Amino acid sequence: MATDLEIAQAAKIQPIGNIAKAACLKEESLSPYGRYIAKVDPAYYRDLPRRAKLVLVTAITPTPAGEGKTTVSISLADGMRKNGKNVMLALREPSQGPVFGMKGGAAGGGYAQVLPMEQINLHFTGDLHAITAANNLLAAMVDNHIQQGNQLGIDPRQVCFRRCMDVNDRQLRSIVSGLGGRTNGVPREDGFDITAASEVMATFCIAEDLPDLKARLARIVVARRYDGTAVTCGDLNAEGAMGALLRDAVQPNLVQTIEGTPCLMHGGPFANIAHGCNSVIATKLALKLADIVVTEAGFGADLGAEKFVDIKCRQAGLFPDCIVLVATVRALKHHGGVDKTMLNQENIPAMLEGCGNLWRHLENARKVWQRPVVVAINRFVSDTQAELDTLYKAVAEKGVPVAVCNGWAEGGNGTLELAELVAREAENNKATEPSFTYPDSMSLTEKIEAVARRIYGADGISVSPLAAKQLSTLEKEGYGSMPVCIAKTQYSFSDDAQKINAPTGFTVSIRQARLSAGAGFVVAFAGDIIAMPGLPKRPAALGIDVDENGTISGLF
C-alpha cells in the first residue's frame, strides 16, 4: 500500500497559474512561490461581495491517531467539484511541531491531499517563520527596553509575553534568560510557546487585513509596571516593525488538491490551546471567489467548532451554513472502551456505546449553535460492513443526513453522496441570526462556565485563586466583553484525557487565565494543558530523510 507521501509524489500537479485561472484569480494579484504555490493579494478583491455558502467540517472527540478531518474536508470539496459545484477550500497551515512529533502533517491523506505536500509540511511559504520572527522581535524589544533604562517602568517579574518557536521542545517551557552579567540583560524567568499557540499567531488569524493586524498587534499586553498597569506592544512602538515582517505572510497561500480543487491555506493556530481556525483573511477571500467554501476547525467540535463559532464568527461576522461532523468506527469503539490494540477488530456493541460521544457533539451543533448538520462516517480499511451499516442506521434514526465517505482511498469519488447532502443542506439553509454559546454581556467566568455546561456537559467549573484573580483583573481593565478560549485536552469533553465518550458528573478546573488582547479573547487554561508540546519517545523526525536527489522520505 502506497504511503501518503508516495501518493503525493506520484500525483500530476498543475502549474499554479492554471489553478488560479480556474478560480478566476487575477494574474496581477499573484506572487508565485515556485511552480505550484502562490501568494494572493486580497487587496485586489476588496470590493467583491461575499457570494459563497460556508461549510464547517468538525469532528467527534478524536483519538491520538486522528480521524481524518482534513482528509474529509479535502475529499468533500473534490466531490462537490465533481458534482459540478464551484468550490474552494480554506484550510490551516501545518505546524512543524506535529510533523516532527507524533500527529504528522496537516495536508490530508491518501488521495485526498493538498499539494505539494512536502513544501506545505516543511516551511511552506515561511508564514510560520515570519510569525515566529515577529513574535520574538517583540520579546527582544521588551527585554531591550528594560536593559536600556526602562522608561516605561516595566517590572521584570511581570513580563507576560513569551518567546516562541515552531518545534516541540519541552526543555524551553520554563527557562531563566539574561544570565551572564549586566551586558547580557536582566535575568528573569521566561519561557517559549510553540508558534501555533502564540498570541501573534492568534492575532494574525483574526485580523481582517494588514492595517487591522498592526492595530491588533499594538494592543498586545507584554508586561505590567510596578504599579500593575499594563504595557502594550504599542507602548514600545513595535507594531510597525512586526507588520513589516508579516507583510507578505498576511497574504493567503494558493495551492491545490490532487484533483485540482483550489485551496487557500493560511494561518495555523492549535485548537486545544488557541482558536484552531484558518485566517479570517483567507476565509473571506474564498467566500468572494466560490459558491461553496469548505473550511475546518481543529480537533473535536467541543474545541475547534465552539471556537470557530464563538470567537471567529463572532468577530468576523461569519456563520456556517452547514456543519459536517466527522465520525469514525474506530474512534467510537475507543469511546466505547476498546483498547487501542483491538480497534481493528469488529465490535458493534462497543461502537454503539461510544456513540454517546457523537450524540453530544450532534446535539451541540443542532441545539446550541442551531446549524444544519451532516454526519460523515470516514471509512477506514479495518471497518467491517456490519459496523458501517449499523452506524449509518443509528445516525439516520436521529433524523440526521449521513453518508459513508472513502476519500482517503478514492478522493472525490469517495465522497459524492456526502458532497450532495452537504451542498443541499448549505444551499437550502436560509440566513439566520448567529446562535452563540453565550452572550457578550456575561462575565468571563460566566462565559467559561457556559461553555463547560452547555458544550462539555460539565456540572460546573472550579477556578483556582490565581485564575480568579487574573479574571477579575481583566474584567476591571475592560476586557470582560471578550469571548473566552478554553485551552484543554482534545481527547475528552472534560479536562481529563482519561474521561472518554460523553462523561457526566465532572467539573472543569481552570488554573490560569491569559489575555490575548490582539486576537480579542481571553484564554482559560483547564487541567494540565500546556502551550509548548514535547516530542514523544519515538518522534516522527527519526524516520524522515532526504536523498542525494533531494527526494524526501518518511514524511508520512
Structural category is: alpha/beta
Uncertain runs with pLDDT below 50, 5 residues or more?
Answer: none
Strand content: 15-25%
Rg to the nearest angstrom? 23 Å
Average pLDDT, rounded to a whole number, is 95
* Backbone shape: globular
**Proportion in helices:** 25-40%
Compute the number of strand runs. 25
Question: CA-to-CA gap between the ends?
Answer: 13 Å
Q: Describe the sheet with the most strands.
A: 12 strands, mixed
Separate helix tally? 18
What can you see in these coordinates?
Helix content is 34%, strand content 19%. Strands 1, 2, 3, 4, 5, 6, 14, 15, 16, 17, 18 and 19 form a twelve-stranded mixed β-sheet that branches. It has a four-stranded mixed β-sheet with strand order 20-22-23-21. It has a three-stranded antiparallel β-sheet with strand order 7-12-13, with helices on one face. With 556 residues, it is of the alpha/beta class. The model has no long low-confidence stretch (mean pLDDT 95). The radius of gyration is 23 Å and the shape is globular. The longest helix is centred in the N-terminal third of the chain and has 21 residues, at 127-147. β1 and β2 (38-40) form a beta hairpin.
